[in-house]
């Protein structure tokens, strides 16, 4: 079966500022990933890891400099109309992504107008779309500023669903929402997937969200995939020290399980000064000499997983040990 | 030990066209020296209004309708504006959610922090500022002094904001959503920093957040707010392991971080927070509460419970799940 989305060795670089220089700054390096039909894949990493750039590159909003994007087996090559007709994007700031001067009813049916598709009864279509995301028909007459955060997010989903997409790219779909509303949005995403066979590419740094919506996880660090595999396996036994650090950094909602120490120190280095060798070595609690000089490859580590670490294999034996270091 | 900062029966409302929005109703809370108090609740429940009231920075349009805010027993509302300004920053300092907006973008960090200390008493030398920056975990503090806010990451800006607040040697540090704008790794580092500071800072810390994980990691005591009221106050362990108010229970249950994955569905809290300009006659949570009965809909509950407080008619009668 062909994947809905297939990225093959995708690279994105941006021009470095400067009048006469042709220098370019690599943002994404050689990223390969695929999202199967009805599958949900999460892309995680800290700010600056390239998550959002990847989403933008998939949707053709940022030019790619190497590799290719395949949508349902066909290479997307300048022909963005087919991709955009079948893949929709859910934006991080739902209210800001809706034009303030248009009613909700117009906004959710706008994709038909953009793609020049027939829309015989706009009011009925709007009603159906709103019903699918659990909003009452009366909302169609409202303007975006009259919506609550949760409602705006639902309108964003309704708009994304307008053309019956096969793939939804969701950038931080629950950021800025209260926990009870987050739960509603997650339940909605879950139901839509079960009912419509939608595939998701979810971009987030919220690991709780990943556990709930993703079948597979791709972990990015400085624009490179450092670990990839089934969600349950990765959370149970992360193969890369960066993944382990991210999981350990998550605050535990139980005062009896407070962390005694700190999982990860320092910050993501600037893409202007990528470290030599393994790019994570400057923050890695398990760093050895080899890591400072030789970049590791992304290699299979069992259980359908891949990791970019020289010592991933050895670590699989000592699971459960916290990769924690003292913070100074 | 007596309270360092206390809020007694505080009610605050905002003027809105055609009425008033009752943002805080009869809130009583206190924080002691050496203690970390957490204030948790969803948007619009009054957390930030309470934090602003604690530091005497209520926005225009807000009216204190009753109650007192006491710092070491003295009612801050009866002080002159000058005295209030003196207390702000020096006795009670605040750290905001987005440290970027708290800085002036065209001045260096060193200059701004020095100006800030100057405005609140004595302008401190750069060396002393650098020492505090080092204390809050900023690498190469001397270089940081010469940088501009946009050159620092969100986590580093939040550290600078905390350092600036601490240079005033305040008695109370109020942090409003201090980690909300940060990545999980930076969040962990700021939690770690606040914990370390607490050990050698002889004051009280108040953390306002909607993130239950931050509360669990950091606080000693928690106040849960709903629709402008404190509906439950408890020691952190009691709240997470034996929540008594139906709202606290619902809030803990629907946190995506708590639920064991695999079920696909998370519990939700049906309905909405009531309109704070037309509050229901009885308990504000009654319309969404699975335990509500006729009494709850008609008569507002009183605070119940010993050692911890629960604002619920049914708290005493219900059995723990």
Automatic annotation (TrEMBL), chain A:
It is found in: Cell inner membrane. SMART domains: AAA (SM00382). Residues 7-247 form the ABC transporter domain. GO terms for molecular function: ATP binding. It is a peripheral membrane protein. Keywords: ATP-binding, Nucleotide-binding, Transport. Belongs to the ABC transporter superfamily. PANTHER family: D,D-DIPEPTIDE TRANSPORT ATP-BINDING PROTEIN DDPF-RELATED, TRANSPORT ATP-BINDING PROTEIN. This is ABC transporter ATP-binding protein. It comes from Paragemmobacter amnigenus. The lineage of its organism: Bacteria, Pseudomonadati, Pseudomonadota, Alphaproteobacteria, Rhodobacterales.
Automatic annotation (TrEMBL), chain B:
The keyword Transport applies. Keywords: ATP-binding, Cell membrane, Membrane, Nucleotide-binding, Transport. Pfam families: ABC_tran, oligo_HPY. It is a peripheral membrane protein. GO terms for molecular function: ATP binding. InterPro entries: AAA+_ATPase, ABC_Ni/Peptide_Import, ABC_transporter-like_ATP-bd, ABC_transporter-like_CS, Oligopep_ABC_C, P-loop_NTPase. Gene3D superfamilies: P-loop containing nucleotide triphosphate hydrolases. PANTHER family: DIPEPTIDE TRANSPORT ATP-BINDING PROTEIN DPPD, OLIGOPEPTIDE TRANSPORT ATP-BINDING PROTEIN APPD. This is ABC transporter ATP-binding protein. It comes from Paragemmobacter amnigenus.
């Amino acid at each position: 079966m062909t994947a809905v989305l297939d990225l093959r060795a995708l690279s994105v670089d941006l021009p470095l500022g400067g009048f006469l220089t042709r220098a370019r700054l690599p943002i994404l390096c050689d990223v390969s990933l695929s999202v199967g039909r009805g599958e949900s894949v999460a892309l995680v990493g800290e700010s600056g890891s390239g998550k959002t750039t990847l989403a933008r590159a998939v949707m053709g909003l940022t030019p790619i400099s190497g590799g290719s994007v395949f949508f349902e087996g066909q290479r997307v090559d300048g022909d963005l109309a087919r991709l955009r007709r079948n893949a929709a994007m859910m934006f991080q700031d739902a209210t800001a992504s809706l034009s303030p001067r248009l009613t909700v009813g117009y906004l959710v049916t706008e994709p038909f107008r953009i793609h020049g598709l027939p829309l015989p009864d706009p009011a009925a279509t709007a009603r159906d779309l709103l019903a699918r995301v659990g909003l009452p028909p009366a909302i169609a007459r409202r303007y975006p500023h009259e919506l609550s955060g949760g409602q705006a997010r639902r309108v964003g989903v309704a708009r994304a669903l307008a053309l019956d997409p096969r793939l939804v790219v969701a950038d931080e779909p629950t950021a800025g929402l209260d926990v009870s509303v987050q739960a509603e949005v997650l339940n909605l995403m879950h139901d839509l997937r079960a009912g419509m066979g939608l595939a998701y590419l979810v971009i987030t740094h919220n690991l709780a969200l990943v556990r709930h919506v993703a079948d597979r996880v791709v972990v990015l660090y400085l624009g490179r995939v450092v670990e990839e595999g089934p969600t349950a396996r990765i959370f149970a036994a992360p193969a890369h020290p960066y993944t382990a650090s991210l999981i350990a950094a998550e605050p535990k909602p139980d005062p009896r399980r407070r962390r005694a120490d700190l999982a990860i120190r320092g910050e993501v280095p600037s893409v202007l000064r990528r470290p030599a060798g393994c790019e994570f070595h400057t923050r890695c609690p398990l760093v050895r000499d080899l890591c400072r000089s030789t970049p590791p490859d992304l290699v299979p580590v069992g259980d359908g997983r891949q990791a970019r670490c020289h010592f991933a294999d050895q670590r699989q034996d000592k699971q459960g040990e916290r990769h924690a270091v003292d913070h100074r | 030990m007596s309270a360092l900062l206390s809020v007694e029966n505080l009610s605050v409302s905002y003027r809105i066209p055609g009425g008033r929005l009752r943002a805080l109703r009869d809130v009583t809370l206190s924080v002691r020296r050496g203690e970390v108090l957490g204030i948790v609740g969803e948007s619009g429940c009054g957390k930030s209004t309470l934090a602003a009231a604690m530091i005497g920075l209520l926005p225009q349009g807000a009216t204190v309708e009753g109650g007192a805010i006491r710092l070491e027993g003295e009612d801050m509302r009866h002080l002159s504006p000058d005295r209030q300004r003196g207390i702000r920053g020096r006795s009670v300092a605040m750290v905001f959610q987005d440290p970027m907006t708290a800085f002036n973008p065209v001045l260096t960090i060193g200059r701004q922090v020095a100006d800030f200390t100057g405005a609140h008493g004595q302008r401190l030398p750069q060396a002393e500022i650098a020492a505090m920056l080092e204390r809050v975990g900023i690498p190469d503090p001397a270089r940081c002094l010469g940088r501009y806010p946009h050159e620092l990451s969100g986590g580093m800006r939040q550290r600078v904001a905390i350092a600036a607040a601490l240079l005033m040697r305040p008695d109370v540090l109020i942090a409003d959503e201090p980690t909300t704008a940060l990545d999980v790794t930076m969040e962990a580092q700021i939690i770690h920093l606040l914990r370390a500071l607490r050990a050698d800072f002889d004051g009280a810390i108040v953390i306002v957040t909607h993130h239950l994980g931050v509360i669990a990691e950091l606080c000693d005591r928690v106040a849960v707010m709903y629709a402008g009221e404190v509906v439950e106050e408890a020691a952190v362990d009691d709240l997470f392991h034996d929540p008594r108010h139906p709202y606290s229970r619902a809030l803990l249950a629907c946190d995506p971080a708590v639920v064991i994955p695999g079920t696909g569905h998370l519990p939700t809290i049906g309905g909405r927070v009531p309109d704070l300009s037309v509050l229901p006659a009885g308990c504000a949570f009654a319309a969404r509460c699975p335990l509500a009965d006729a009494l709850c809909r008609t008569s507002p509950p009183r605070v119940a419970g010993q050692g911890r407080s629960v604002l619920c008619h049914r708290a005493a009668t219900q059995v723990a799940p």
